[in-house]
């Protein structure tokens, strides 16, 4: 019996990742990324962020050829394609399928006021009931910005789409999108289970500019002869899965059901809780997106809470600390007692924090004792402060009808620290399961989910990826005391920002 494979792409803003997995077992055969350096982000004005969609395609082609060559597999044995991509971006195409401008990507904030005004004019009640979100700085609002500021270019638009839709188009020559993709662009009406026509009407956008909607875990298009020659993929194989990076990261960790939570601890932190409850009262602090397995009969919604000031805090400390590696920092932090002898670090120094109602309170070092505190205290207080910010975020999620039964995280940056992971597990009172996986691997595995067998999918993840589990420690008291001190300091800062 010849081994079959699936391939997954993860189109990030720093690089394009590709993974090849065994179609039967889900085992990762080979993963790599292009380019070797970080992709550039074009910023012609403050708070603008753009990338050329053709660059993504060029890197997809290069990475695919590399993974086939370096894995030494027979490319004809690749059966299906899955795509993960940077969320909320805008790509606009003319009738020939050529991008009319650079993509306005996720971290571009030019459309904030457009979305805020739409929220006020249409009313918070209507937006929450139908969109589960404020229109915010998402894809629909970015398109409205193009309409207002680049009307001649806007008039040439044939279709607009998300970054993953563009890569799917380049592979299949078919312009389509998904419900979960539209939801992340704040273009989906959950109440009517249709396109949010009323928001398009408010923005003056013709719904004909939207691509056709296709379902996930079905054939969304097949690889053309042209795309096959450019990538090395077999002609005619299907794209069967597409999702934004955060929902896809959750799927990669087998987070698919009500009460399951994915946690990411990189430069920024993300808590992504799956719920079947479509009520939301925290739309100014939490985003709600149709999850990868969403359908109207069983609405599976991902509540996403982002913490800008997370791993960047620890990285900043390392940059100021001379020769100390992360390993050395963790060892020194481990010599300090829980609570860092009264030192608290508020880690929010990476811009305005949505979960703090878009306040920018910066990073604060509270209660430093110059006679007592050392670098080790700073290291521990930073790890604790980041963990506390996750706990604070989970309290917001619980207040917004999210249930937390299972927590899983990738074996990345922060979760490699026992101090961070033990602090978080102990305070939230849940085990944290750690898995060694990536978004590209998850997308490749999801490409094989045509049969909808999520139980088998989850078993493959457990069998292949489980690294360890952090269990809540029995003595919770010192952690609670340290968290309360930290929380009191945070609330004083927030009060002063009113």
Written overview of the protein:
The chain is of the alpha/beta class. It folds into two domains: about 5-245, Nucleotidyltransferase, domain 5; about 255-430 and about 470-498, Nucleotidyltransferase, domain 5, CATH 3.30.420. The protein has 17 helices and 22 strands. The chain has helices at about 55-70, 110-120, 125-130, 140-150, 150-155, 165-170, 180-185, 195-205, 225-230, 245-250, 310-320, 325-335, 375-400, 420-430, 440-445, 455-465, 475-495, and strands spanning about 5-10, 15-20, 30-35, 50, 80-85, 90-95, 105, 160, 175, 190, 195, 210-215, 240-245, 260-265, 270-275, 285-290, 300-305, 345-350, 360-365, 405-410, 430-435, 465-470. It has a seven-stranded mixed β-sheet with strand order 16-17-15-14-20-21-22, with helices on both faces. Strands 3-2-1-5-13 form a five-stranded mixed β-sheet, with helices on both faces.
Q: Spans of 5+ residues with little confidence (pLDDT < 50)?
A: none
CATH topology grouping of the largest domain: Nucleotidyltransferase, domain 5
How much of the sequence lies in strands comes to: 15-25%
Q: Which term fits the overall shape?
A: globular
CATH architecture of the largest domain: 2-Layer Sandwich
- Number-wise, the strands total 22
Tell me about the biggest sheet? Answer: 7 strands, mixed
Distance between the termini: 67 Å
The residue-averaged pLDDT reads 95
Class by alpha and beta content: alpha/beta
Radius of gyration over C-alpha positions, nearest whole angstrom: 23 Å
Q: In which order are the strands of the major sheet placed?
A: 16-17-15-14-20-21-22
Tally of DSSP helical segments? 17
